[in-house]
TrEMBL record:
Residues 75-258 form the Glycosyl transferase family domain. It holds the Pfam family Transgly. This is Transglycosylase domain-containing protein. It comes from the Bacteria. PANTHER family: BINDING PROTEIN TRANSPEPTIDASE, PUTATIVE-RELATED, PEPTIDOGLYCAN GLYCOSYLTRANSFERASE. The keyword NADP does not apply. Residues 363-666 form the Penicillin-binding protein transpeptidase domain. It catalyses: Preferential cleavage: (Ac)2-L-Lys-D-Ala-|-D-Ala. Also transpeptidation of peptidyl-alanyl moieties that are N-acyl substituents of D-alanine; [GlcNAc-(1->4)-Mur2Ac(oyl-L-Ala-gamma-D-Glu-L-Lys-D-Ala-D-Ala)](n)-di-trans,octa-cis-undecaprenyl diphosphate + beta-D-GlcNAc-(1->4)-Mur2Ac(oyl-L-Ala-gamma-D-Glu-L-Lys-D-Ala-D-Ala)-di-trans,octa-cis-undecaprenyl diphosphate = [GlcNAc-(1->4)-Mur2Ac(oyl-L-Ala-gamma-D-Glu-L-Lys-D-Ala-D-Ala)](n+1)-di-trans,octa-cis-undecaprenyl diphosphate + di-trans,octa-cis-undecaprenyl diphosphate + H(+). Keywords: Carboxypeptidase, Glycosyltransferase, Hydrolase, Multifunctional enzyme, Protease, Transferase. The keyword Iron does not apply.
Amino acid sequence: MSNRPLSAAGRSVPLLRAGLIAGVVLAAVAYPLAAVTGLGAKATAHAVEHKTNILRTALPAETSYLYAPDGTTILTMFYEEYRQYTKLSDMSPNIQQAIVAAEDNRFYQHSGVDPKGVARAFVANARSSGVSQGASTLTMQYVRMALRDSAQTPQEVQEATQQTSLRKVKEMRMALDIEKELTKEQILERYLNSAYFGHRAYGIYAAAQIFFSKTPATLTPVEAATLAGLVKSPSEYDPLSSDQKEATGRRNYVLDKMTQLGYLSPDAAAVAKSEPIRTRPTTPANDCAAIPNKYNTWGFACDYVKNWWSAQPAFGENRLERMDKLRRGGYRIVLSLDPKVQAAAEKNVGAKDRVDSPFANGIVVAEPGTGRIKAMAVNRTYSLDVSENGPSSNPEADPKMKANYPNTVAPLLGGGTLPGYQAGSTFKMFPMLAALDAGMPLSTAFDSPYRYKSAVYDGWAPSNASGAMTGRQTMWSGFGKSVNTYFVQLEEKIGADRGVHLAEQLGLRWRTDVDKEQASPAKAKKWGAFTLGVSDATPLEMANAYAAIAADGRYCEAMPVNSITNRDGTPATYRTAGGIEREVAKPRCRQVVNADAARAATDAARCPTGDTPAKGTCGGWSTADSVRRTVGRPVAGKTGTTDSTRSAWFVGYTPELAAASFIADPDNPFNAVGDGQSQVPVNAVAQTLRDGLKGTPTRQFTPPSDAIVG
């Protein structure tokens, strides 16, 4: 059946110019201020023309969706106004007819402004000495909603909705202009995608979902009439209220109007009016805390997507603008996690176990060559509800402050504002890589006593963890055994600032005041303790930094998504400083050190894991010699512990994946995890690499050249 009333079928009823003029004159009488200000004022005409141009292309705010890596499973949504734009062809004729019947039964006869409606409203308002009846057509209502949705400032929102005669006349003029540019079907489609139905349902897709858990295409006459009746007053006619009397009355009114217009037969309307309103409400997910329980551990990755998004200039000038785009832009975002690797990470840090311990054990896995994040897991439940959490372990915290376990949404894995955790000897990679990139060979040797007093660093005298490390060491053995006194001497040769600068190039950021000061140009040359990992870092940063070494020195920014598409299905893009347009979700990589230096660093980094380097010798023992046996394929990495084992780390990588794991107390960095738990991150990384790569071909590291071996 056609959407047009039967009385108008097969004929067009164009408005005479005189009728339009009469309508506007009546409007001017009904709204005296318009006559005072002058309908033909030049400034007003220009403003109306400008806004009409905006409305031709304006689209309402639309919900953004976060998908699992399969690109079809919805994890959650981001919105201020829950809305999904729906084409008219995907809407039931019932809702199209019901909204015309409820709001503008002469929609197909007028050209944007209805002179009969204006006259009727004028008479009614004159009799009541006030505004008892409106004259807004569907087109005029659409204009008002579109101006509201496209407003950039609070003042523009107010101007679009304020009850003044000047606003009404401008609205009429724009409605007349819009009807010259858009078909009735286009206007109806836009209207149904803009209207508010209550319960945060903006547009017919959201309304059908929230009230009936179905799509607009399947709405029955009863459901359509119920929804159409809501537009006039969503709260008064709310069918989800305990008393449906008002909602039923309004629905029946709409059904009667549909009958008068020939959309429903009297018998069908009578049957429909006899039915109760049967709702099936749905509460749409919003933000990361609403991720389904099945994917609860993915909440930390979702949270990182938001933090990453807020730092992307492609989505706005500042954080506020970018987050507004996320919640209003209608994006389709596909998460980069690999379900197999994620499952392995979750299992090996106990992410799904209820943990009654202040010590967080987390892991991040990155892909060398792309920077895509393949896993993020920590032994915590992602939840805003901390009511059952115990008191914080920090003795200086407020006694009422809750601990971070078992529930938290804090970005414990990185990507937020938390500084991270001291990473210990995993930092030895940075001065070693800087030395190799500067031309020093792997065979560079130093006599490494138990304690070494540095003349360069003002008499600073670090010692080794064990007397067994004493002796002449090379990069292979010094790295494999984690010999502090070797690396202090290596750092002296190249300058501590070069190691600091290289760490920055590999994505590390200094967040505490102490780290910022020490990393500053004025202090970095004297930051000898940098090589021992006294700075805070996050597992996200460390996994991505080591991934660059696995990728032959090519660093890629951490990327939590596989793709981002606009509401029209095109890839989201940004323009580089050089004017090149690129997709936001494409890897952003750059060569940080030469490939041979990275390969040499990997050769030395095979020593801590119990693997065999291609060109040198590890010196007989290593700090994590179980890793190679567990992973079962070539693997490199580095252990790290801090003073009194307040935190423990392991960062490991194969040619395919790089993983960083830590164990520490996020609430109290002085709460030592103890030597007994230093193996926890070693096992987490080794087992995750093993499980995540199971069934995939074994790849070999590329050996360094003889020139850099020395």
